[in-house]
Amino acid sequence: MHIGKKFLVFIVGFCLPAMLLVYWGMGLWFEQKAAVMREQTISQELVSIGEQYDRTVKRQLLLSHIYASPLNLLDEQSRDAMDSAWHERTHAMGLHFFRYLNGTLYALGENADSELPPDLVHALVSGPDEATGAALLDGVPHLLTSIRIGDARVLVSRTFAEGELERLGQSGVVDHIRLVQLRHDRAADGDAYLVPVPSLDGSRLALQVTFVSAGAWNLTASPDLVVMAVLLLGLLVLALGYLWISRSLVAPLRTLMTQLGHIDPNASEYHPLNADGCPEVLQFSQVSNQLLAEIFAQKERARAILEGIADAVLLTDIEGRVLYFNPPAARLLGGEILRHGQQIERLLGWDTNSITDFLLSSGKPRKNHCFRYQNHLLQSTLSRIEDHQGQQQGALVALRNITAEERLKAELRRQAEEDPITGLPNRATFEARLDKVSVKDSSAAVCYLDLEQFKIINDSCGHLEGDRMLQMVAHCLQGGIQSHDMLARLGGDEFGILLLGRSAHEVARLMKELQRQLSLQVLEYQGQCYRVGVSIGVAFARTPLPPLRELFKDADIACIAAKRKGSNQIHFYDDKDKELNYERNAPKWAMRIARAIHSRELELYFQPIHALEAANPRQRMEILLRIRESDGRMLPPAQFIASAERFKLMPDVDKAVISMAMQWLAARPELWRDHCLSINLSGNSLGVEGMETFILDELKRTGAPSSCICFEITETTAIQNRQRALDMLKSLRKQGFAFAIDDFGSGFASYGYLRELPVDYVKIDGCFVRQLASNAKDYAIVKSIHDVCAVMGIETVAEFVESQDIIEKLEEIGINYAQGYAVGRPKPLADYHGRPKLARLA
């Protein structure tokens, strides 16, 4: 249905019925409101009539009090004298007075002939002292009042005047009001409404209210000519509106739809729409032109992209016939071969109907595969083309020539997996193959070979000759092993070999043979002959075999042990060797130390250094480092200190210990006068850049006195880093720090170094102290060290003092301080509370 007919249907089918329904509904609403207003008015009027009647009763009661009391007090002659004047007033007001005394009713005034029914009189006099109520006497409404005055009662009767009851209601609303006797409990009797009123004789009375006729309340209006004229005017307005809409909207839209129907989606030129009419139609045409322009621009961009990319792109229909191909496709497949409408499966050598099967399948929206075309390796990508309803319309085939790319990948893979000098697998490849090897043999051996004297060749002959030597070594090793064995260059002058299914004896014999073969390899350069040796570490295991990567780590540790034994040595890894286990676990301990420093898990212990001279008040103690595991167990220092030194973590460890010790000392100023803390400095920390600045910054930050801190350095460290140690010692001594040489006598130092190093204490190595009480040589060495130090003004400390006999010998020599289990065992620094006492052993 056209839009013009839709507007007509809208007007006739919706607008006109809506107007009639609104008119009819307003009439019903008005009638309902009028009825509700009439009921509300009647209810309010009945309430008002009841209130007016109550006020009338109250007025009569008040008048009765005013007139009754004087009449009752006058004697009979006085009352007769008042009859004339009294009669005029009371008759005009409709009042009749009676007196009841001693069972007799007397009429007062000239209306003495009036009577009241006996039953009514009985009800009046037997009631309360004061009562008012209505009564019907011979059909005439009366209002009666009874008042007790002394022993007598005064009864007052008033007849309602004609029209008096109607005046209780509102004029124009109430038709008439009558006093009637009730015969039922309903609030209405026909068209009349009932208002109950009290009576004195027990009868049920009510005011019967009749309102004016219902016509006076009819507020509805009936259709007239004016209403019909309004309706006709509305129809005329609707007709004019339809004509206006038809000309300004329907006709322009029809023209616009005609232009849209003639648009060619495959046109090579852009033709905009031309429309006029209302602003909405113009805006619709502008939006349509923008959309058409964007579609055209997008189509041009797609064409430019397809023609500009390097990949070959072909569009096919659902049966696999070529609809479009870009220039790279023509160059790749041959322009003289590729034609529109050609079956692409036949052209590329694919299975017949492969594209149709792909389009009709419910699998992945894209399909990739590689195939060979002539001398090229091509990678194809198939994608579905769907319309707006999701129906398959064809396929997009993208072809990429990956011949050069695959060659480059193969070359890069070879370079990544092989050593460029020897052609052997490199370390990463060797370790990866160790993880992938499926070991079915009863034994496995991983050998770690480290060439010796190879650096001499590089330094003397150059790296080119060194590379030639590596090639000779690789060729020699390859000739000495079997084809199924694995050989790799691990880096530098290191090689690795994996042997499977050999006994330990066979592995050892093979390694000896390889050492002999390598010793025969001679490199001649400028008249000189160069040879290399090899240290070999072997990790051997039988079933059940551990992971081969773990064996590789053990072989590396074993090679380190072989080099320690001397030149051209072979060492088999033994997991019971504590020193090798330390080497193997060194990386793990290094990580544990780094975590402990970061998480502040380091704990400080102390061991007292007791003064052997009673007159010496100075209490010294050495600060020791511990790490507590999660189960509460303390790690031995030997397990992590060596790892920290190997991996250069000791500067961080020393900084953490210095910071914690200074904070502890700064919090206890009562110890400053007679205590001194000895803190060890490792060789890696001595003279390292920033260490001196860190110590001074911590001293300033914590506020600890420098006179209470002594740094201990080992004799070997002081000698190896003599100049750095000397500079650092002199600088820190100016700040008030003291220094001590630890383990003195165990190294290669001479007494001359004591003259150069500005130290305050010398700690004699425990190897001379343990047998001091029974070994005269140790006694002489310790005494000589003390005598030299005494002459130089240096105090001595004996380590590893473990018995009372040693203490006595030390006192005999004159040693200044003693340290060991006989003096005190290491304890947590947090538990230190004062100067410990010297332990005396029995």
UniProtKB/TrEMBL annotation:
Protein keywords: Membrane, Transmembrane, Transmembrane helix
CDD domains reported in the protein's UniProt record: EAL, GGDEF, PAS
InterPro entries: Biofilm_reg_signaling, EAL_dom, EAL_sf, GGDEF_dom, Nucleotide_cyclase, PAS, PAS-like_dom_sf, Rev_trsase/Diguanyl_cyclase
Domain (EAL): residue spans on this chain: 586-840
Pfam families per the UniProt record, alphabetical: EAL (PF00563), GGDEF (PF00990), PAS_8 (PF13188)
Transmembrane regions listed in the UniProt entry: 7-30
Domain GGDEF: 442-575
Record keyword Manganese present: no
Protein name: EAL domain-containing protein
